[in-house]
Amino acid sequence: MRVPIALHVNGVERQAEVEPRTLLVQYLREDLALTGAHIGCETSQCGACTVLMDGQPVKSCTILAAQADGASITTIEGLAPIGTLHPVQQAFWDEHGVQCGFCTPGMVLSTVALLAGAADPSDETIRHGLEGNICRCTGYHNIVLSVKAAARAAAAGAEAQPVVDRNAALAR
Amino acid sequence: MNPSTFAYERAETLDDAIALLAEHGDSAKLLAGGHSLLPIMKLRLAEPELLIDIGRISELQGIRDDGAEIAIGALTTHQAIADDPMLRERVPLLADTASRVGDRQVRNRGTIGGALAHADAAADYPAAILALEASIVAKGPQGERRIPAGEFFLDFLTTALQPDEILTEVRIAAPPQGHGWSYQKLANQASGYALVGVGVLVVLDNGVCSDIRIGITGAAPVAWRARAVESALRGRTLDANAVNSAAAAAIDGVELLDDLHGSAEYRRRVTQGLTRRAILQAAERAAGTQ
């Protein structure tokens, strides 16, 4: 059995016929090659597979692709134009909110949704809001700092900026 | 990690869903948010031949206040309950409980109907549902019926729902204005599920406890009302001494779980401690409004 689905992914309309048991994360990674949605625990605990579904963070390992029919999905690849960084991505870079990077796409997308609902979040709000994203490097301290920096950047009206290769810039 | 293969049908109306369920019986499962069902299907603990997706049925959505009762549609997500201004004002115990389920992503997808029908022993809602004396509304080929909260949870993963029935809504008579409430939870750090969760409602009359209801989840195969604690405290002043000695009875007559998440002895101590804390916080909140 195949189920027809039609959804918007990163602004592009997609149509497919999927096996009913296809998980949203599988459809994104295997059919659309959007591998920024990571597969971690596969038991809806770690949050590495987080994507935005109609603007809300969800765990794409625990949603059937068929359930997402008609939805608008944003993955980390769709957050900012290629070659640029969304202000939240820039803040994670600037504040060293990234260690191995496996949890980062999910952390960033959860942060985007968190800041949409709380412009100036407290530490407690940030930690509660990111409870569904686990960092096994345990880099939470800098992640909280990154979220605060992103909130300040958003308040200052920041927009996506081209990626700057700082090592190259320093070498010059 | 995929579930076994299954067929998929999307029900457009409640009657469609009831008809599909009647036709396929035990080989079918209802899919709402999927946050209880899909994980157990991935683990192959459930292998239904058909999933009936009820996630888009409009009759099962929304929160309504019809004066005497508040009705919460089965498809209402935990986050929608946590954020609803009317529930936060009139049934804060339920709104706060919803805000503590899982994490943000889980709350965005998981539904109250799905969580109640799945009846995980470590789910959060049963504590509040018991303390609020809510009713569960179910509809099947024989029509609709109301199941009192106290008769709904039967055993581990087992409710009073019949195989051909669909949980359609939860109905709650809002507690009196000025009541006190508390949900105290010790969460499993990995899963967010309640190792123990205690929901308490308190009504004070001139500083004396005129009503108290306590629901406890997580510590046993099925949630329960701590009636011995309630009757010890009704008509009393809820001072620390009275609450401390009464809370010891929270586990009376209950066979506590004993597993890798916590021994029965550990759960006994946590249950008694959280019961004490929840009553004191609820009493403080009730006193603060008078």
Can you summarize this structure?
The complex is a heterodimer of chains A (172) and B (290). By secondary structure, chain A is α+β, with helices and mostly antiparallel strands. Chain A is built from six helices and seven strands; from the N terminus they run ββαββββααααβα.
Keywords:
heterodimer, A: 172 residues, alpha+beta, Ubiquitin-like (UB roll), DNA polymerase, domain 1, 5-stranded mixed sheet, two-stranded antiparallel ribbon, 6 helices, 7 strands, 17% strand, B: 290 residues, Uridine Diphospho-n-acetylenolpyruvylglucosamine Reductase, domain 2, Uridine Diphospho-n-acetylenolpyruvylglucosamine Reductase, domain 3, Enolase-like, domain 1, 3 domains, 5-stranded antiparallel sheet, 4-stranded antiparallel sheet, 12 helices, 26% strand, globular
CATH topology of the largest domain in chain A: Ubiquitin-like (UB roll)
CATH topology group of the largest domain in chain B: Uridine Diphospho-n-acetylenolpyruvylglucosamine Reductase, domain 3
The number of helical runs of chain A is 6
| Cα Rg of chain B | 19 Å
Q: Summarize model confidence as the mean pLDDT of chain A.
A: 94
Molecular structure report:
The complex is a heterodimer of chains A (172) and B (290). The radius of gyration of chain A is 16 Å and the shape is globular. Chain A has 172 residues and is α+β, with helices and mostly antiparallel strands. Chain A is built from 6 helices and 7 strands; from the N terminus they run ββαββββααααβα. The N and C termini of chain A lie far apart (59 Å). Chain A has 2 domains: 3-78, Ubiquitin-like (UB roll), CATH 3.10.20.30; 84-159, [2Fe-2S]-binding domain (DNA polymerase, domain 1). In chain B, α10 (227-233) runs antiparallel to α11 (240-247) and α11 runs antiparallel to α12. Chain B folds into 3 domains: 7-52, Uridine Diphospho-n-acetylenolpyruvylglucosamine Reductase, domain 2 (2-Layer Sandwich), CATH 3.30.43.10; 62-172, Uridine Diphospho-n-acetylenolpyruvylglucosamine Reductase, domain 3; 180-288, CO dehydrogenase flavoprotein, C-terminal domain (Enolase-like, domain 1, 2-Layer Sandwich). Chain B has helices at 14-24, 37-42, 78-83, 85-90, 92-99, 104-109, 112-118, 125-131, 149-152, 227-233, 240-247, 264-288; strands at 7-10, 28-31, 50-53, 63-65, 70-73, 135-140, 143-148, 153-155, 158-159, 166-172, 180-187, 194-205, 208-217, 224-225. The model of chain B has no long low-confidence stretch (mean pLDDT 96). A 5-stranded antiparallel β-sheet of chain B has the order 4-5-10-6-7. A 4-stranded antiparallel β-sheet of chain B has the order 11-12-13-14, with helices on both faces. Chain B has 290 residues and is α+β, with helices and mostly antiparallel strands. The A-B interface holds A 1, 3, 19-21, 23, 26, 42-45, 47, 50, 53, 56-59, 62-64, 66-67, 110, 113-114, 128-133 and B 1-8, 10, 31, 34-35, 38-39, 42, 51, 53, 55, 79, 102-106, 108-109, 190-192.
